[in-house]
Amino acid sequence: MNQIPRRRSGAGWRFGAVLIAALVCLPVLALLLIAFQGSAGLWPHMLANVLPAALKSTVILLAGVGMLVTLIGTTTAWMVTAYDFPGRRVFEWALLLPLAVPTYIIAYAYLDILHPVGAVQGALRSLLGYSSPREFRLPDIRSMGGCILLLGLVLYPYVYLTTRAMFLTQAANLVEVSRTLGTRRGSVFRRVALPLARPAIAVGASLALMEALNDIGASQFLGVRTLTPSIYSTWVNRSDMPGAAQIALAMLVIVVLLVLVERYARRNQRYAAAAQRPRAMSPARLRGWRAAGAFCLCLFPVALGFIAPAAYLCREAWKRVSFAGISPRIWGEIVNTVTVSAVATLLVLLSGLVLAYAARTYPGRSTSLAARASTLGYAVPGTVLAIGLLYPVGLFDRFWAGGVEWLIGAAPGLLLLGSGAALVLAYSVRFMAISTGGIEAGFSRIPPSLDHAGRMLRRSSMGVFRSVHLPLSKTAIASAGLLVFVDCMKELPATLLLRPLNFETLATHLYGEAARGTYEEAAIAALLIVLIGILPVVVLSRLGRVET
Q: Could you tell me if 344 and 424 are in contact, meaning their C-beta atoms sit under 8 angstroms apart?
């Protein structure tokens, strides 16, 4: 039998994968160069006046958010998986809805909802017989506790999603064996399901903590000074780029620690499944007060994390439209948001296809390292990424402007920073991991025999890619593209720092209005972001339904 001739056409795919990975790693390398440009007395000043308070606030915030998202996400995932009660089918997807609300929007909404002279506190005082905020008022939401609560309410779905998937894929016989040994279902959760789900909980919690670390709007609105706002103020207000880079490096250390903790939580943990597809666990029927308790337990995070802020945004947007109509500039901001997000999504999908196909078809050290390095951007907060990109982008713009001016005698202006290309580049680096992971998952469902068949028919690598992999992974590519698009649209820190002059998106418009305290002006932009953010929730809920 003749062997299939080995093709050596994979050099292009390998080169493309390595080039994309180098682009993702470029901001981190540039960050190191910027940090070393600081003056000798800068770091002692940062240690004495900036870092201690910011680092303490960051650690407290991450610890509180981590505990809250783990508690809410794990508990609700077990409730909708192990028990049957009224509303369970709705809560299976409704518990994902807070993912549609960016952290800065929930802070913006609750600052007005819980204002001391607002409707909620006014109704409470009237009910309790008080007439003035001096006599009775709720604890101030502008606090560390308020920030932990609000971030936990919108970030717990990361834990819920990964943990519920683990609960669903655990074989039912594990629970049944435990029950035959006399273990109650509550004890099964503590002694069987929870230990098996620890890796999933660690992954979800680490994603939630990275999002909390990336936050800049909510923490500023709520008066919590973490490392991320410190980077922004050091760069923009003090014009101190090396100092901002050094704080960014401190944030990177925290990110690395989070990743190491997540890996440590999964050390030496291997789970083997039976050859047959595991049978889903049969939920136990709850009645009476137990059913009511389960319903309220699942309703609580959905109501506070999505229903309340969404209802507030709808009311404020309606009031704004009824009073003054829709501001003409909102249309330009929608165009800006959709344009940069769409261009970045297209670039990210193309890069993800190159990385995933190179790793599948030409496995080796270079393609494997490239695929892993491409996920680095998602672990880097947007503010850190913006600082790291500004240096190489600025060098390119200066080189470009100098060359053009030498040729035509006129300064052309900034090419990347002035056109928004730097913003697209930041989005691409930040969300490359979503595209690569989603497309790799789609490719993994394609049998290798189809690749071999294509080679036997003398099809080129590109021909097999076009005729086999693209058609069979359309759903995975579309889902990854949708998730990337919505994440680009919601991204605030990188947009604030890298946008061109007089370039506003929905996120930056909301941030500016909320910072000025003119909440009614930002309601329409916030509502649009939430409505578009529901799209990936629909995709995730459909994927979860297919797996069950």
A: yes
